Amino acid sequence: MSLNLILLGLPGAGKGTQAQFIVDKYHVPHISTGDMFREAISNGTPLGLKAKGFTDNGNLVPDEVTNGIVKERLDKDDTKPGFLLDGYPRTLDQADALSNMTDELSKPLSAVINIDVDPKLLTERLSGRFICKKCGATYHKLYHMPKVPGTCDVCGSHEFYQREDDKPEAVKNRLKVNVKMNTPLISYYQDRNLLFNVDGSKGIDDVWKNVDNILSSL
């Protein structure tokens, strides 16, 4: 039986790491929205060219084009053992479209894994990064401080800065937008008995153990 999955989670929840573990163990392709667009555009498919027309002008690609590109991708041979969707669906309309296309392709969803982490913890995780002004070495207030406080391990400089989008206020806003987007999807898949919540505040290995237990029980 194929393993057809969606991965949900806020920025910084560790989706990328868990996605790689799933791909390595279950041999399903990791399909992210960005990769799909790039592939369709570089292959010059009719939908890819349509998408390019929007992205080149800095516009959002409309749902009908996005949905079409997703369907084309899910219809490829490498999805026979299953697939792992990341970054799609983003809206309830897209979730409905996905439901229709998985029915048409006879590839129904097996599960939706939601890596759940408190936004406060994610703010700490995401806003802890700071960078050496001189050489660009990256540090983190929680996970990777310089060996000598205030001195870059690489070049010895004492000047550091924080990128605008790593500052706490920017991070909080980004999380707020994502919470607003994810909440209806979580309810949607909960109502369809497809949702599995995993506590993403634990260590990477513990999170993976929980994800793996869910997937091996399907």
SSE diagram, text form:
Layout: E1 3-9, H1 15-26, E2 30-32, H2 33-42, H3 46-56, H4 63-74, E3 82-86, H5 92-104, E4 111-116, H6 119-127, E5 129-132, E6 138-140, E7 160-161, H7 168-191, E8 195-199, H8 204-217
Helix pairs in contact: 1-8, 2-3, 2-4, 3-4, 4-5, 6-7
Explain what the structure shows.
The protein is α/β, with parallel strands linked by helices and 218 residues long. The protein has a single domain, classed as Rossmann fold. Helix content is 48%, strand content 16%. It is built from 8 helices and 8 strands, in the order βαβαααβαβαβββαβα. The chain has helices spanning 15-26, 33-42, 46-56, 63-74, 92-104, 119-127, 168-191, 204-217, and strands at 3-9, 30-32, 82-86, 111-116, 129-132, 138-140, 160-161, 195-199. The protein has a 5-stranded parallel beta sheet, sandwiched between helices. The protein has a 3-stranded antiparallel beta sheet with strand order 6-5-7. A hairpin with a 5-residue loop joins strand 5 and strand 6. Helix 3 (46-56) crosses helix 4 (63-74). The longest helix has 24 residues, at 168-191. The N and C termini lie close together (9 Å).
List keywords for this structure.
218 residues; alpha/beta; three-stranded antiparallel beta sheet; 8 strands; 48% helix
Largest β sheet strand count, sense and barrel closure: 5 strands, parallel
Low-confidence stretches: none
Please trace the helix and strand order, writing H or E for each element.
Answer: EHEHHHEHEHEEEHEH
Mean of residue pLDDT values: 94
Please tell me the total number of domains: 1
Distance between the termini: 9 Å
Which class of secondary structure composition applies to the elements? Answer: alpha/beta
Overall form:
globular
CATH topology: Rossmann fold
How many helical stretches? Answer: 8
Q: Which CATH architecture is right?
A: 3-Layer(aba) Sandwich
* Helix percent band: 40-55%
Estimate what percentage of residues fall within beta strands. 15-25%
Strand order of the largest sheet: 2-3-1-4-8
The CATH homologous superfamily is termed P-loop containing nucleotide triphosphate hydrolases
